[in-house]
Design brief:
The complex is a heterodimer of chains A (917) and B (114). Chain A is of the alpha+beta class and 917 residues long. Chain A has 28 helices and 26 strands. About 2% of the residues of chain A have low confidence. With 114 residues, chain B is of the alpha+beta class. Chain B is built from four helices and three strands, in the order αβααββα. The chains are: A alpha+beta (917), B alpha+beta (114).
């Protein structure tokens, strides 16, 4: 018997089809040849003749080419009879027009899709834009990647005076670094401060930076106008230095005066000449807080007076920025800095440190860190909340996508006959998928574009959400390549998620089975419905995760807002009075401050007013160890100086002993009032009244025995989130070195506008040269809860959106199911099912999906919420109450969403339902 | 040369209709179909293997017919083809077109069936 397989195989060489298909074709054709051979033999041909006849069957035609044409035709024209073949890219334009036409014909569907995509993509883009600005954008200077920050690697044990937002180094350390480092062309220093623009009366602050002479050189910055600060401007003892101003300050304060260079500016009562303006895109090197005025470092002593840190060896107030030399890396620079660290530390030991402090200090090692992104408090504070919000927004978008996938599937099932006919008429499946996908592409592009437009409103709104009183946040919100890339990626993924699966599904059904079935199927295709059920389960579970997250953040905020800090926090006005410029000698300051306080107290409508050197919860503080019976305490005690009547103003109850009074003077016995926690930690189990302690002061400050005369209830000191710390209060009158400034807390029934005027007049009556700043206590606390507020507000919004989308999804599926099952339901009713049974049947289907979704969602929530634990206050990430409330809430809403289609099903007229078939 | 090309195209065009028609009543395998075409046309229409199978596969690709390997006891494994729903409606359309075409040809050329 000849090898017919081999005959066919020889002719099929180079056909380039899949091996599996090739085997099949060879099998089939060889079979045919054998049949013919047998038939030739039985007709009397010899074997040789028969073989020749069979061989001629494979002649004349290029079999490989014919088969290749048939098998490898990827996209065949959907229009029967038109030229077939071509590659996948062909007809895209045609598909695009077709998709546009279909979408135009279904405006409601199109609008729903575009709006939900735009909301999802817009929210994601806006949050990403913020993250981009806070985290990823480089400083707007030449070659930012060459910039490096030099600081101490681990400075956790440092003590001394700290001023400014980035108090990394002392002047001494910075000067030593400049002299000894080798990796940078130069290392510039800078510090931050608020400079009062007014002289006397209500203060108006410019956000200032002190910069060393090399600062702008290191940044390789060119001025927009005038010149920038140079090393020649920054000479110790400089008397009348010049100021460089930012573009926005130039517009705001000088009205964009083109002849601004040479004009005068008063900062903290000192005249400065404007010498230059920086370009519009330069906001400084503090991301989130743009600078207004830059003045040379050497002017700090003049501005700060006795609180200057310029020559103080324990004064931490400078940050650095250097530019790497060509060929140097941060690692190499760090290695060199580490090598010179011992010498630098040895030469800069703070004079006031005790032996232990010096030992720790000498261990400090310097390192070089990336400086391309500048400095940012905002980044430290908001980076992780923003990532969390991005994740939440991503979930919302995912839910929206799933919803759209469901909608697309529903639409595809309406079109299944059309698709079947087109498949039957010769359209290839990939080609049909492409056409269906084209609709998703169009929707994703429209949604993405609208989303970007939406984001340009949303992101500035979000940015200003982060504004605090007097500190507007500035971020360069641009549509840079990262943002555009992100949005494009999100839109593309979105499109694939909601478009591809339905398209593949829709074209999977065999055309014959669809065309054979006259109308809707008697029983529902389990597979198609199963897939949509899975989508609804996904939606419900993701929504649950979002709702749980939102509840955690909202509850956390509520805990903080309703928390009792140990005093009555509402309805207080903070009055900061600064009389540095009046140059009142130290010994007369206490009397001057008492006069200010008495004046304010005597105003009508002022219930009470008291002085303090530390406003509680402002973030500022003073602490030290205490010595009791010669033993130095383990921990640090928080401390503050207050006037008499402070506890009454604050509403903190005096538990034992007495308040400070006029008998507590500089000459009398030093006294203190302590809180309960202080007693618990320092004098446990004893009666503290009458006991004495010393402050573990250093640097030659004399130590006194301080007698405890009263005990007050615990209250928060620095931050709402902290636990109650041991605190000691001392009378203002016993301050050996009173500051030329004070904070006065005023409680009043008056409207704050009226009260501010009264206080202003009262202070002006004492001396009009006092600089005053007002802040409402509630406002200050609110500013501190911004992060929690942002998280609660946005996560709540996202959760609401997610629930709405999930409910739409569930309702859509149930309504669709009822419609598809109307035959079956009709039969059931005809057979005697009562409406209640039908309702139960439909409802149980919906609730089963919701139940599975809630179980899956709970598991996901338990697994994921631990990532947010650091942002929660007063509850655990696995808070069972939140989970239960969220699940119960979702279940209730979902039940309501299923009841409507269930009732519709129960009202079905069996005759009509069956007739429709 | 021209004639042979015309023949080929005509055969190819008509072959689709022939194959669909033969599958209308029942499913058949490839050899059976080609034999039936040859027999019923009394030898006028004859496809060799190399041109017949590509035709068959093209119809299958278009979803008009559906092939399936069938093993019957005592027989060799064969691939049987049956008409799909799409193929059925195609056949209907093809038939009509063909009838119209033939009628038009007759009107013009005056050729009539014997």
């Amino acid at each position: 018997m000849p090898d017919f397989h081999e005959m066919v195989r020889a002719r099929l060489r180079d056909a380039g089809i899949s091996p599996l298909r090739e085997v099949e074709i060879i099998d089939e054709m060889a079979q045919d040849l054998r049949d013919r051979y047998d038939s030739f033999l039985s007709n009397g041909l010899t074997e040789t003749e028969a073989l020749a006849a069979v061989a001629s069957e494979l002649q004349d035609v290029d079999l490989a080419r014919e088969i290749r044409q048939v098998e490898n035709r990827w996209a065949e024209s959907t229009v029967l009879g038109s030229a077939a073949g071509g590659h996948f890219g062909q007809g895209i334009w045609h598909d695009l027009r077709y998709a546009l036409r279909l979408l135009r014909l279904n405006p409601v569907f199109t609008v729903i899709c575009v709006v939900s995509l735009a909301l999802g993509i817009g929210a994601n883009t806006a949050i990403f834009q913020l993250l981009d600005a806070v985290r990823m954008q480089s400083l707007p200077v030449n070659h930012p990647e060459e910039l490096g920050i030099v600081r101490i690697q681990d400075r956790s044990k440092a003590s001394g005076s700290f001023t400014g937002r980035y108090s990394n180094l002392t002047s001494g350390i910075w000067k030593q670094i400049r002299q000894r480092q080798q990796g940078f062309t130069d290392v510039a220093a800078w510090g931050t401060g608020n400079f009062n623009l007014n002289s006397g009366g209500v203060a108006e602050y410019a956000r200032g930076i002190w910069v060393s002479g090399q600062f702008f050189d290191v940044l390789q910055m060119q001025p927009l106008m005038g010149r920038l600060i140079s090393p020649a401007d920054d000479v110790k003892g400089c008397a009348a230095p010049g100021a460089v101003i930012s573009y926005s300050f130039w517009e705001r304060y000088f009205g964009g005066d083109p002849r601004v260079v040479g004009r005068q500016l008063t900062l903290e009562g000192h005249p400065f000449e404007v010498i230059g303006v920086t370009p519009p895109n330069f906001y400084g090197i503090d991301v989130g807080l743009s600078y207004d005025v830059a003045i040379p470092l050497c002017s700090e002593p003049m501005m700060q007076g006795e609180s200057s840190l310029y020559d103080v060896s324990w004064g931490w107030w400078l940050g650095t920025l250097g530019r790497l030399k060509p060929g140097w890396t941060l690692e190499r620079a760090t290695a060199q800095l580490e090598a010179i660290s011992p010498g630098i530390m040895q030469d800069t030991v703070p004079t006031v440190y005790d032996a232990g402090g010096v030992k720790d200090y000498l261990k400090y090692r310097l390192g070089a860190y990336p400086g391309a992104n500048g400095f940012s408090r905002l980044r430290t504070e908001y980076e992780s909340p923003l990532w969390i919000l991005l994740a939440l927004a991503g979930l919302v978008l995912l839910i929206a996508c799933v919803n759209l996938a469901n909608l697309m599937l529903a639409r595809a099932s309406q079109r299944e006959r059309e698709i079947a006919v087109r498949l039957a008429l010769g359209a290839s499946r990939p080609r049909l998928i492409r056409q269906l996908l084209m609709e998703s592409v169009v929707l994703a592009i429209a949604g993405g574009a609208t989303g970007i437009a939406l984001a340009s409103f949303l992101s500035p709104f979000l940015m200003h959400f982060l504004d605090t009183e007097g500190k507007p946040v500035y971020l360069p919100l641009t549509h840079d390549w990262r943002v555009l890339g992100f949005t494009t990626l999100v839109a593309a993924i979105t499109c694939l998620i909601f478009g591809l699966a339905p398209a593949i599904r829709a074209t999977k059904a065999s055309p014959s089975s669809i065309l054979n079935s006259a109308g809707r199927s008697m029983t529902l295709s389990r597979e198609g419905l199963g897939f949509r059920s899975v989508l609804v389960i996904v939606q419900v579970s993701l929504s649950l995760v979002l709702v749980v997250g939102a509840l955690l953040f909202v509850q956390s905020l509520r805990n903080l807002v309703t928390l009792d800090p140990g005093f009555q926090r509402h309805g207080m006005l903070i009055v900061d009075a600064d009389f540095t410029r009046l140059k009142i000698p130290m010994e007369r300051r206490v009397a001057f401050r008492e006069e200010l306080l008495d004046r304010i107290r005597s105003q009508q409508g002022v219930t009470s007013a008291s002085e303090t050197n530390v406003v509680p919860l402002s973030g500022w503080g003073w602490n030290n160890r205490v010595i009791v019976g010669g033993v130095v305490s383990q921990g640090h005690m928080d401390m503050m100086r207050v006037s008499s009547g402070y506890f009454r103003t604050m509403g903190t109850s005096l538990l034992r002993g007495r308040d400070f009074d006029s008998h507590d003077t500089a000459q009398s016995q030093k006294v203190a009032i302590v809180n309960e926690e202080f007693v618990r930690q320092v004098l446990p189990g004893t009666d503290p009244i009458g006991k004495t302690f010393q402050i573990n002061s250093y640097g030659g400050v004399p130590r006194f025995e301080i007698e405890i005369v009263g005990v007050v209830a615990d209250s928060k000191y620095r931050d709402l989130r902290e636990k109650f710390e041991p605190t000691a209060f001392y009378p203002q009158a016993q301050d050996a070195e009173p500051d030329p400034s004070t904070s006065i807390l005023v409680r009043s029934d008056l409207d704050f506008g009226v009260l501010i005027n009264e206080v202003k007049n009262a202070i002006a009556a004492v001396n009009p040269g006092v600089d005053i700043r007002f802040e409402s206590y509630d406002g200050m606390i609110n500013d501190q809860l911004l992060r929690e507020r942002l998280l609660a507000a946005l996560s709540g919004l996202f959760a609401a959106l997610a629930v709405v989308l999930a409910i739409i999804g569930l309702y859509g599926l149930m309504a669709y199911t009822v419609e598809r099952r109307s035959n079956e339901i009709g039969i059931r009713v005809a057979l005697g099912a009562v409406p209640a049974q039908i309702v139960k049947m439909v409802l149980s289907q919906g609730l089963r999906l919701v139940g599975i979704g809630l179980i899956v969602g709970s598991a996901v929530a338990v697994l994921t919420t631990r990532w947010v634990s650091s942002l929660l206050y007063g509850l655990k990430p696995h808070d069972p109450a939140c989970l239960i409330v969220a699940a119960a809430g979702l279940a209730t809403i979902a039940t309501l969403a299923s009841i409507i289609p269930a009732r519709q099903a129960a009202r079905l007229d069996p005759m009509e339902a069956l007739r429709e078939q | 040369m021209t004639t042979s090309m015309f023949d080929r195209e005509l055969k190819k065009g008509s072959a689709e209709l022939l194959i669909l028609s033969l599958l209308e009543g029942r499913s058949r395998h490839g050899y059976e179909i080609s034999q039936l075409i040859e027999q019923r046309s009394e030898g006028t229409l004859k496809f060799n293997v190399a041109s017949f199978y590509p035709l068959l596969y093209r119809l299958e690709k278009r979803g008009w017919i559906e092939g399936q390997w069938v093993e019957k006891a005592g027989q060799r494994r064969r691939r049987y083809y049956k008409l799909t729903a799409g193929g059925r409606s195609m056949l209907k359309q093809h038939r009509r077109t063909w009838q119209e075409f033939v009628a038009a040809m007759q009107r013009i050329t005056g050729v009539r069936h014997a």
